[in-house]
Specification:
single chain; Rossmann fold; 13 strands; 16% strand
Length: 416
């Protein structure tokens, strides 16, 4: 089988990690696999995952004369480029309901993302809640393949960056800064306010330091994350939208526990007051109370950690998950073609045209004052210039998160 996988970027992210794990298994099964990214790979991409050295990466221009048995979009933006690939069949790998990444105020953009789920594409998803949402709202019957965990990497025994200290909590915050629904800067602020222990940050963002954070681990290869997890007691992860988020599961495998919002996908493996503490989304007072419980209730942290290890032991590794993904891919490739390349091009062109019309109308209605537009242009220019100076960029990213993101409540998202 000749397969093309479309990705937005090959940069560090949980979604890319999942795709790469499945791609490596497909490659081992003998699939002729090409990955096309919307963002060019570039000669200096960080080797954060083994797939970057083993897979074939190509541009749209490089595959223009090729024909594939199956092309799979893996992010909503890749749907709008899928028609550029010549394939007998097309499919969609949905890792979240990505319209929820954007606040309610982004009406036109949310509609553009939701439109991708209207296309008559077969697909695969990783969580029960996504499968149910796509069935109930859009009439799809997607294959369900829960994510695995890298058992050889993530285990309670192994090296650590620093030993855990008995009687002291070490809290790990994980995620990128500058992504509203990941809520990382505000999570750090809550950890500081709780004052229950030392705070570490593991992030894909280019930052060297952050106020109130004892250790920052920036853009770390996947193989080097486990020692960081093993050094911490609690993962504090307060995302507003997830598919089936992996970091708490990885933390469980490494002997820790977590405090999370009741975000989409948490119930795939997290049980409140059993293996972690779950707080209603947006309840920041509840987050502080949960952290204080971990500090003040003797025996709570060890009990949660023990149950978290049981959860981890029962969870499948990639050696079990990726063959299921491969089977779903083969099933789709052997099934009927549900949409032609030309139909795909026409549908996506119409969806995008409607978005442009709606966005222009919205922009005209909410055009910001001239002073605010000027300030935004200045900030954009500074950030573009800073991109040429990595150290300056690191400080700007952390400063903007500290001054803006920490002090802003995440904007509301309606789950439609």
């Amino acid at each position: 089988m000749k397969l093309c996988m479309l990705m937005g970027s090959a940069d560090i992210s949980g979604g890319s990690y999942v795709i790469f794990e499945h791609c490596l298994h497909l490659l081992a099964e003998g699939v002729e696999l090409t990955v096309v990214t919307l963002d060019p790979l570039g000669p200096h991409v960080a080797p954060w995952h083994p797939a970057l050295q083993r897979l074939r990466f190509a541009s749209f221009e490089e595959v223009a004369s090729e024909s594939f048995d199956l092309a799979i979009a893996t992010w909503w933006k890749t749907i709008y480029e899928l028609h550029r690939i010549e394939a007998a069949r097309y499919a969609y790998f949905v890792q979240s309901i990505e319209s929820w990444f954007y606040p309610d105020s982004e009406v036109a953009l949310r509609s553009l993302v939701n439109a991708t789920y209207l296309l008559p594409l077969p697909g695969i998803t990783e969580a029960r809640w996504i499968q149910a949402h796509l069935r109930e709202r859009f009439g799809h019957d997607y294959h369900l393949v829960p994510n695995g965990c890298a058992k050889p990497l993530y285990a309670a025994e192994g090296p650590a960056v620093a030993p855990r200290e008995k009687g002291k909590l070490r809290i790990l915050v994980e995620g990128p800064l500058g992504v509203d629904f990941k809520n990382v800067a505000r999570t750090i602020a809550l950890a500081r306010r709780a004052a229950v222990g030392e705070i570490w940050l593991l992030t894909a963002s280019p930052v060297a330091a952050y106020p109130g954070v004892a250790r920052v681990f920036s853009r770390i290869p996947a193989a080097e994350c486990a020692p960081i997890y093993r050094s911490c007691d609690v993962l504090l992860k307060l995302s507003l939208v997830e598919g089936m988020f992996g970091p708490p599961l990885e933390m469980f495998h490494c002997g820790g526990t977590a405090v999370v919002y009741d975000v989409t996908g948490h119930d795939e493996y997290i049980l409140d007051d059993r293996n972690a503490l779950v707080v209603p989304t947006g309840d920041e007072a509840g987050v502080l109370a949960a952290l204080h419980r971990l500090r003040d209730e003797p025996g709570l942290v060890p009990r949660l950690k023990t149950e978290a290890l049981r959860t981890a032991a029962a969870w499948p590794g990639w050696a079990e998950a990726s063959p299921r993904f491969a089977a779903a891919v083969r099933s789709i490739a052997a099934g009927p073609a549900t949409i032609s390349r030309e139909q795909l091009r026409l549908w996506t062109a119409e969806f995008f045209a409607q978005y442009v019309r709606a966005e222009r109308a919205l922009q005209a209605a909410r055009r910001p004052p001239a002073l605010r537009r000027l300030a935004r242009r200045i900030m954009d220019a500074v950030m573009r210039g800073a991109a040429q100076l990595p150290v300056v960029k690191q400080h700007l990213v952390s400063l903007r998160a500290f001054l803006q993101e920490e002090r802003s409540l995440p904007r509301p998202r309606t789950r439609i």
